[in-house]
């Protein structure tokens, strides 16, 4: 099963990744542990923000139906991952969404900037297939199965 170009109306995980091979590896890793049922893929930052904020081609969605987790690459076309992160964390409606940076960059300046902008975690993409798969699975399990999400109802 490959991810659709059109994003579903609801998603537990929004993967923002422009590299098809990395996106497919992440999808397979999540599929193997049963967490790909409501996975959406945005291949650039503008589409990710349109999806989350329910605007443009996603205006029919409710902004209340936000993803439970966003896996965000830094090097994206149109808007960088840092720009996406900044917009997500500066809006009270989307600020509580856990955003995990999943990037090949190990640069201290990138890591510091992402945490300063509100990233919940920063993970350097492992180069090895097995390590990459394991990292994505651990992230999915932690954020969707172990972590107690922020709720506006508490």
Radius of gyration equals 14 Å
**In CATH terms, what is the fold-level topology?**
Rossmann fold
Mean pLDDT: 90
* CATH-assigned homologous superfamily: Response regulator
| Shape designation | globular
Strand order of the largest sheet: 2-1-3-4-5
Q: Low-confidence spans: pLDDT under 50, at least 5 residues?
A: 1-5
Percent range for helical residues? 25-40%
Number of strands: 5
What does this structure look like?
With 154 residues, the chain is α/β, with parallel strands linked by helices. The protein has helices at 20-32, 45-52, 81-89, 108-117, 129-146, and strands at 13-16, 39-42, 69-72, 99-103, 121-124. It has a single domain, classed as Response regulator (Rossmann fold). The protein has five helices and five strands, in the order E-H-E-H-E-H-E-H-E-H. A five-stranded parallel β-sheet has the order 2-1-3-4-5, with helices on both faces. Strand 1 (13-16), helix 1 and strand 2 (39-42) form a beta-alpha-beta unit. Helix 1 (20-32) packs across helix 5 and helix 2 runs parallel beside helix 3 (81-89). The N and C termini lie far apart (38 Å). The relative contact order is 0.17. Mean pLDDT is 90; it is low at 1-5.
């Amino acid at each position: 099963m490959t991810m659709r170009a059109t994003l579903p109306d609801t998603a537990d995980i929004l993967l923002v990744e422009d590299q098809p091979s990395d996106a497919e590896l992440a999808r397979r890793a999540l599929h193997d542990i049963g967490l790909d049922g409501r996975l959406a893929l945005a291949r650039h930052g503008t589409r990710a923000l349109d999806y989350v904020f329910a605007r443009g081609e996603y205006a029919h969605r409710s902004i209340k139906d936000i993803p439970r987790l966003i896996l965000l690459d830094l090097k994206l076309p149109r808007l960088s991952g840092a720009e996406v992160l900044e917009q997500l964390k500066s809006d009270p409606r989307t600020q509580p969404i856990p955003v995990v940076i999943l990037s090949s960059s190990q640069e201290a300046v990138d890591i510091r900037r992402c945490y300063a902008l509100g990233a919940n975690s920063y993970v350097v993409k492992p180069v090895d297939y097995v390590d990459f798969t394991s990292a994505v699975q651990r992230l999915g399990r932690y954020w969707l199965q172990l972590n107690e999400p922020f709720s506006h109802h508490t």
